[in-house]
């Protein structure tokens, strides 16, 4: 997936509504609608530094589908 315009320099984008963080570089084509809907809602957040540990530090957790892929 191509990174959203507002987040072209961020790999991880968080959803403020659900406290879930998405790895935009690892989004599968069938899941791109999730990021598109998130950008349309304007309820997103970037992290600095742009890492999963920083997202966890702010109370976000990696999206379950990506977390399961990382565990295998």
Walk me through the structure.
It is built from three helices and four strands. 33% of the residues lie in helices and 18% in strands. Strand 1 and strand 2 (20-23) form a beta hairpin.
What is the number of strand segments? 4
How many individual domains? 1
Number of helices: 3
**Share of residues in helices:** 25-40%
Q: Would you list the SSEs in sequence order as H and E? A: EEHEHEH
Mean pLDDT: 92
Structural shape: globular
Structural class: alpha+beta
Spatial ordering of strands, largest sheet: 3-1-2-4
Q: Unreliable segments (pLDDT under 50, ≥5 consecutive)?
A: none
Q: How many strands, what sense, and barrel or not for the largest sheet?
A: 4 strands, mixed
Report Rg. Answer: 11 Å
**Beta-strand share of residues:** 15-25%
Distance between the termini: 22 Å
Please write out the topology.
Layout: E1 12-15, E2 20-23, H1 32-41, E3 44-46, H2 52-57, E4 61-62, H3 64-71
Parallel strand pairs: 2-4
Antiparallel strand pairs: 1-2, 1-3
Tags for this model:
globular; 72 residues; 4-stranded mixed β-sheet; alpha+beta
Summarize the structure.
The protein has 72 residues and is an alpha+beta fold. Helices cover 33% and strands 18% of the residues.
